[in-house]
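User: I'm curious whether this sequence folds into something compact or stays loose and floppy. Could you predict its structure so I can see for myself?
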Amino acid sequence: MIRLLAALLLGAALSPWAQAGEPQGVLSTIKKTGVIRLGYLAASPPFSFDTGTNSPAGFSVDLCQRAAEGVRKQLGLDALRIEWVKLDLSNRLAAVRDGKVDIECGTTTWTLSRQESVDFSLMTFVDGATVLVRSDSDLTGLDHLKGKRLAVVPGTTTEGALNGALRRRGLQASITPVGSHEEGLALLAAGKVDGYASDRLLLVEMGLNAKGSNTFRVLEEDFSVEPYALTLPRGEPDLRLAVNRALAQLYRSNEIEPIFEKWLGALGRPSVLLSALYYLQSIPE
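Assistant: Here's the prediction. I'll summarize afterward.
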């Protein structure tokens, strides 16, 4: 009897909600249903992409799976089923805000204005925005964009940062809105625009995997800093805490390294800035 009581007390002490009571909000629903809904981008490799039959893969997808496993353990569930929901750049934030997904696992930049309607996890990556051009182009820096035709997805942080960078340098350029990375690359390959603006690592991946006779390169300059994070519903502190617990453990244990190597290793070692980001977010329990 004494051993049983001791075991029960130890289990209660180890539970994240032992002192605060049962989880609330979205996390409570996840516990009751045994299902967590994860949103992903179908065409943003190497972070999030569709491999067919609604089966996503990528760096951010792996982090979301680890977060979901952390949620399962913290809720004390024997199993937690992941329901994948395909999203795109135009509806990813609305899907979280409107409760269609519990977590969005893509390439979303954490901004203060976005935090008015959604919330964010610990940062998962940091990148910079630049411009993809054809290899035979004479464009090398931002100052060469004067009078050029540039494609960008509207409503993204890249669009605002690009317009701001051009304005600060007194440059006039023609901006063509596109609905996806694929559309931007297609216009660039066809010579209908001179460059496609997005996050550097995404552009490098697109250039390396481009089909056809065209070859591409990125400009030597970035015009923004893009801190990525998993997107969460606003006003759900229990869910945010559970996700951050899982990510912090991933960073503390250095288990982030094989995930990075798997998806991003071919593009080079983590930058000093990125390594510092993971080190500073190794938050202790």
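Summary: The first helix runs from residue 2 to 14. Residues 1-14 have pLDDT under 50 and may be disordered.
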